[in-house]
Amino acid sequence: MDEFALIRRYFAADVVRRDDVVTGIGDDGAVLAAPGPDALVVVADTLVAGVHFPETAPPESIGHKALAVNLSDIAAMGAEPAWATLCLTMPAADESWLEPFAAGFRNLAHHHGVALVGGDSTRGPRTVTVQVIGHVPPSAALRRGGARAGDLVCVSGTLGDAALGLASIQGSTRFDESCRQTLERRLHWPEARVSLGIAMRGIASAAIDISDGLMADLGHIVEAGGHLGAVVDVDELPLSHCYRTVLERVGLAPALAGGDDYELCLAVPAARLDDARHAAREAGAVALTVIGRFVDDFRGIRLEPAGRPFDTPDQRGWRHF
Ligand SMILES: [Mg+2]
């Protein structure tokens, strides 16, 4: 099958129809109507087989995840996603891989109303690059750099589940069948917190999505804030029921340093916490948990209660993940 037939067959059919797509797939470029007074938010992410996903991962989940990780960045900006491009490198035009891959991508695109407007396909080691363009009122965009001392450190959902899903697949941690499925699903089928990001406009002072682990990503907020530190109370980390079944064995490393959770980490002024919780509920978003506070008497991240040994990223344990 040639490239054009392939695109028509799997990607041009059944794309999300949007009025702002003047010219979509099939021309040299997409023509998109500018979204009124909003500013554009552009994100991109590449997934490489063997690096970001196992070659054996279900193709449908790779199509889903390639889009989801980009939607997560859009969510972290408080933006609304609108359009996507997809660049696909494959060893061969293998229809038994392409069809489920396209379905995974398409289903999530429909769920978020994102139109696929272009892309490219080439032969080579399997690599998926997705770009998503969204929009946000310019002054409402959530940035990494806005946190202030006194703000609360909040996270959405639960932490560490994707890392435990990977540990399950690799056989380093065993779970009962129900938890095995739940955790592997968290790894392969991440949910971007788009409605939560939009709900946090005008409330959160900073935001980031947790793709590389809480310590790393909260670290980015702290760095971007100038002279800023964060105190995290590890007893407050939101852990799932399945995580708790192995907490004694794996410790807190998956929650602190495990990647691929795609929850949001937010700085919320203490006086706005009720507003944040209310807005999250109204948006039908996952719950927010306060795990600490930003301070200005040191830089970096301090874990409390002090003196307790933690599996922090510079200690043994987390490297399993
Ligand atoms: Mg990000």
Report the β-strand fraction as a percent range: 15-25%
Strand order of the largest sheet: 8-10-7-11-9-12
Our count of helices gives 11
| Broad structural category | alpha+beta
Which ions, cofactors or small ligands are bound in this entry?
A: magnesium ion
Secondary-structure element order, as H and E?
Answer: HEEEHEHEEEHHHEHEHHHEHEE
Backbone shape: globular
User: Termini separation (Å)?
Assistant: 39 Å
> How large is the radius of gyration?
20 Å
Low-confidence segments, ≥5 residues, pLDDT <50? 312-321
Mean pLDDT score, rounded?
92
Q: Count the beta strands.
A: 12
- Describe the largest sheet: 6 strands, mixed
Task: Give the helix proportion (percent range).
Answer: 25-40%
Q: Could you describe the 3D structure shown?
A:
- With 321 residues, the protein is an alpha+beta fold.
- Helices cover 34% and strands 25% of the residues.
- The chain has eleven helices and twelve strands.
- The longest helix has 18 residues, at 59-76.
- Magnesium ion is lined by residues 73, 76, 209, 211.
